[in-house]
Amino acid sequence: MILQNPQRQQPHISDTAWISETAVIVGNVTIEDDVFVAPNAVIRADENGSSIVVGKGSNVQDNVVIHALSNSEVVIGNATSLAHGCIVHGPCRIGEGSFVGFSAVVFDCEIGNDTLILHNSTVRGVTIPSGKVVPDGSIITQQDDVKEVEDITPDLVEFKRSVINANMELLDGYRKLAGNG
User: Fold this and answer.
1) What is the pLDDT of residues 125-169, one digit of tens each?
2) Per-domain residue ranges of the chain
3) Beta strands per DSSP E along 78-158
4) Where residue 11 falls among pLDDT bands split at 50, 70, 90?
5) pLDDT more than 70, % of the chain
6) What is the second-level CATH architecture of the domain 2-177?
7) Distant-in-sequence, close-in-space partners of 76: CB < 8 Å, separation ≥ 6
8) Are 79 and 57 in contact (CB under 8 A)?
9) What is the dihedral of CA 30, 33, 34, 36, to 10 degrees?
10) Closest CA to 159 of 136, 175, 128
11) What gap in Å lies between CA 100 and CA 27, rounded to an integer?
């Protein structure tokens, strides 16, 4: 479902993106090329002055919620994976090639490039540098907590790549089913 917001702003969705018919996209949202939006995702920029951009080649999996507060933005970098049931709430920036895990919550933060926020973690009000891994179940709400976050490992680099590849295959498959590929 593609809807305008109360300010009469419509989503802008690339012709090469694939959006599930059960996803809801509202307002000042830009979805760039080759983005996969899975069933029941909600991407909502309906508060006054809010905006959301989902970068090229990213995937927004089942039941993900992306929302921006008034006068804030959410920017999802290219080739980033938002896994099942995570919440990304603006203001928020997530760098290119990053991963936000199942049921993780990120709010009022900046996440660097090639960074993983693993499953059931909460990241709020901090900056996580590029190339880091927030472990499963972590709660990072003070900038001092970020000092304990470790560097990404080769196996997690491969994991991120496999998630992107799997979702690009889904994108291609669904486009072919729709006669667009």
Assistant:
1) 999 999 999 999 999 999 999 999 999 999 999 999 999 999 999
2) 2-177
3) 81-82, 87-94, 99-100, 105-111, 116-117, 122-124, 127-128, 132-134, 139-140, 150-151
4) very high
5) 99
6) 3 Solenoid (2.160)
7) 52, 53, 54, 55, 58, 60, 66, 82, 88, 94
8) yes
9) 10
10) 136
11) 23
- Which of 11-20, 142-151, 170-179 has the least mean pLDDT? 170-179
With the CA atoms of 11, 17, 21 and 23 taken in that order, what torsion angle do they form, in degrees rounded to the nearest 10? -60
Fill in the DSSP letter of residue 52: E
Residue 92 burial (CB < 10 Å; 0-12/13-18/19+)?
Answer: buried
Helix, strand or coil for residue 169?
helix
Provide the pLDDT for residue 178: 82
